[in-house]
Amino acid sequence: MTDVSAFIVQTLLYLAPGIVVTLSLVIVSILLGLLMGVPMAVGQVYGPKPLRALIGVYVWIFRGLPNLVLLFLFFFGIFPILGITDDPFVVAATVLGLRSGAYQSQIFRGAIQSIGEGQMTAARSLGMSTPQAIRHIILPQALRIALPGWSNEYPILLTDSAVCYAIGVAEILAKSYQLVSRTAEPMAIFLIAAVIYILLNYGGMRLFAQIEKKISIPGFGKGAL
Amino acid sequence: MGADKYILRVEDIHKAYGDREVLKGVSFNVRKGETKVFIGPSGTGKSTLLRCINQLTLPDQGRVFLNDEEVTNSGTRINYFRQKIGMVFQNFYLFDHLTAVRNVEVALLKVKKMDAAAAREKALEELRRVGMEDWADHYPAELSGGQAQRVSIARALAMDPDVILFDEPTSALDPELTREVLEVMKNLARQGMTMLVVTHEMSFALSVANEILFMEHGKIIERGTPAQVREDPSFERMRKFIGKFADFGEGSGKEDD
Ligand SMILES: Nc1ncnc2c1ncn2[C@@H]1O[C@H](COP(=O)(O)OP(=O)(O)OP(=O)(O)O)[C@@H](O)[C@H]1O
Ligand SMILES: [Mg+2]
Known about the structure:
The complex is a heterodimer.
Chain A lengths: L1 H45 L2 H16 L2 H16 L5 H27 L2 H9 L4 H22 L1 H9 L10 H12 L2 H30 L10
Helix pairs in contact in A: 1-2, 1-4, 1-7, 1-8, 1-9, 2-4, 3-4, 4-6, 4-7, 5-6, 6-9, 7-9, 8-9
Chain B lengths: L5 E12 L2 E12 L3 E5 L6 H8 L7 E6 L2 E2 L7 H7 E4 L11 H11 L5 H14 L15 H13 L5 E5 L7 H16 L4 E4 L3 H7 L2 E6 L2 E6 L1 H6 L4 H8 L14
Parallel strand pairs in B: 3-8, 3-9, 6-7, 7-8
Antiparallel strand pairs in B: 1-2, 1-4, 4-5, 9-10
Helix pairs in contact in B: 3-4, 3-5, 4-5, 5-6
The complex binds adenosine-5'-triphosphate (ATP) and magnesium ion.
The site of magnesium ion has 4 residues of chain B, from α1.
């Protein structure tokens, strides 16, 4: 028994930095995606036609390419050419973030479009400019409506992050692989890795449920929409 | 200019959607403190007319003046005029994510840039005016239709408008809730608020209006005081239209019951 628990503890200790890297990667890319997704959604709903088309093309490209293709393209191509950095973590966070931004923009766009036209009309009738109305009336509602769907970005990014091992990000899977090559215990180690992913997933789910509860408003965004 | 004591002037408003002419030249003037009631069949352009006044819909032709300043073609100054021209909608359009008091204060904070304490005080005062102060912390979904409409009236009042446009403010309400909203509107009229009201509430029109304007097919066809409308048979179209609503002739009897 002690052998087994010692093995588990050792494995966990070895993987711990990988867990930190994975979580950092997910958090940075989800925030980058949020920073891009909200303005893109606003642009797609309220912006001029050329802007809407441009955003549409961006979304189409980033949703249409496999993660690994984007990672290789940025790691071996775009970043070296631009001479920005060769840090795989930065490349991975950028790629996951750009891709998540494309997905997130469509979640927020749907939420904005589900808000009745009357909200904007009423805001404008009080003398708010369109940007003021978007900021103070439309977005606070849209973000609440979007939250349940938006929460899915977390498990998606969490699972997607494993691919980043391919460009040398020292995340959970990369660390597991290293350990396997040293100990020749693939089953046990990958199983532990899998359990870690599941627990991280579960933790995130709980966190988002808490946030949803905290910002919920009586009678708002339930069924009526 | 000095002789011109109209608070609102609407001159020859035209509006078409595609080749469908919805407003075919509508003009009228409003003095301070007047209540003008617009009635008429569905689809004759009453809502469009109100929306052309505060430019939520842009008229194709014609001009609107508020206190002799042009509202039409006013560029971004329209946001100033809209503060001065309140609007109350059939479906209330309360901001669903804000409590009653925050519905009333949000434009005070963001448009008038009032400080938080002053805005809150003003918002509560307006809620009191419509009898909704006890509901200040409730969300729209927790209010009855009549309560929601009273909050939306408070929201318009908070901007200290020169005139308020009401677009069928009671059409979405049960008779009982209609009464409480009409009561608030009657009080406003008594307090000297200038109001343009589109409604099917004929007793309200006949008892509160300074003038009733009958619209059909994008034009004002007949217009007169309630007394004229009631007594003068030459108001043929309007009398026939009002006759479809049961309470014609006993309109004023319903006041203050
Ligand atoms: N945005 C729009 N696009 C196209 N047609 C419109 C638009 N808004 C209104 N209309 C049309 O204009 C006409 C007048 O509409 P409006 O809502 O002003 O009438 P109304 O007198 O207020 O009628 P109701 O009593 O039913 O409210 C209608 O035929 C309507 O279908
Ligand atoms: Mg209408």
